[in-house]
């Protein structure tokens, strides 16, 4: 399946900046975290580097990363819930469609891999 991701640090940074109004200091560590997270959420290296050129751009990058993590998680969890409801009723076609619908819109590789794994797990079902 997909590799384990640790989005705790990026979530904490986003929370600190958004709730306290703290300035996003572009330290070497912060830039490294933003770069790593960008690739983990489907943002190209060139987009990330361009954003990291300014504090405003880095803040936008942080917001976009946080949003992709949050929205992708909600999308996948909701679809998994519906998928299991369909499976419990024996409706594997609708269950598979839930994961296909996630794959149509999801850009975060980790969430895509999870949805693809669920879809593959149902391959032998009617």
Automatic annotation (TrEMBL):
Protein's organism: Myxococcus llanfairpwllgwyngyllgogerychwyrndrobwllllantysiliogogogochensis
InterPro entries assigned: DUSAM_dom (IPR011753)
Pfam family, one: DUF2379
Protein name, per record: DUF2379 domain-containing protein
DUSAM domain sequence ranges: 6-122
